[in-house]
Amino acid sequence: MRRRDLRGAALAASLALLALPARAADDFSLRSFFAGHSVSGGEIRTLGLFRERFTARFEGKAKGDALDLDERFRFQDGARLQRWHLVERGGRVTGTVETEDGWGVLQGPFPVSGTSGPGGAVLAYRGIAPGGGRWMFDFRHQITPRPDGTAGNRVRISRFGLPLAGARVTFTKSEAALAPHLAQP
């Protein structure tokens, strides 16, 4: 298993997906959270030994129950794309994610499932890490709205049930709102 695959897996974890507008937690939905422009920043830790910071930019389009979201990661070794298509209905989330591999080719789509409600969202899927190769990992994103209008995302990356990496990510609608979170260790 390549370190690059694990690092990318954790980054995908950043799902990254999202950016939270300033709103009450009881208003939380993935569609409103990801619609428009968002940014994120975080750190991935692999096997407790390696740490790498990263950022991402999001462009989301919400229509009805659906959300189409492009997540563009920025790592030390380059940029990677994840493309999400999610449907949020009655507290359930279904959809797919495509992930750019180490050769710049989108792989997938990989099925995504989860839940969404006032307290946040949980998304899970089996797929490759951004910038990775053929290794498949299990990703679990736990996204929680915060009082300051940002959202936290804790990502767990595992294989065969064994945790290999994790990421802590902050999502927000602007670089200015993200800056204080990037300064934290």
UniProtKB/TrEMBL annotation:
Residues 1-24 form the signal peptide. It holds the Pfam family DUF3833. Keywords: Signal. This is DUF3833 family protein. It comes from Aureimonas phyllosphaerae. The lineage of its organism: Bacteria, Pseudomonadati, Pseudomonadota, Alphaproteobacteria, Hyphomicrobiales.
